[in-house]
Design brief:
77 residues, mainly alpha, two-stranded parallel sheet, 2 helices, 8% strand, elongated
Length: 77
């Protein structure tokens, strides 16, 4: 779950970020990730690893949006 889910999203975003930054001058590039949603309080998903990966993928999008904002690249989940 951690390798196929979270690590794959992180690795893909890390590889895509430089390409998106270079393309930022010619339009509005963005990064879209499938996450567990934004409501991380009180909605246990029934399995600890699955729940943790979904929460971490949502936080990954928040961090990517913060890091890429200065380069005019959007990150949404």
């Amino acid at each position: 779950m951690f390798t196929a889910g979270l690590r794959a999203q992180f690795t893909a975003a890390r590889a895509a970020a430089p390409l998106l930054i270079r393309a930022a001058g010619g339009g509005a590039p963005g990064l879209v990730a499938i996450t567990g949603g934004t409501d991380l309080t009180g909605h246990y998903l029934g399995n600890v690893p699955y729940d943790v990966v979904k929460a971490a993928s949502s936080r990954l999008v928040v961090a990517l949006a913060h890091e890429l904002r200065g380069h005019d690249v959007a990150a949404v989940g």
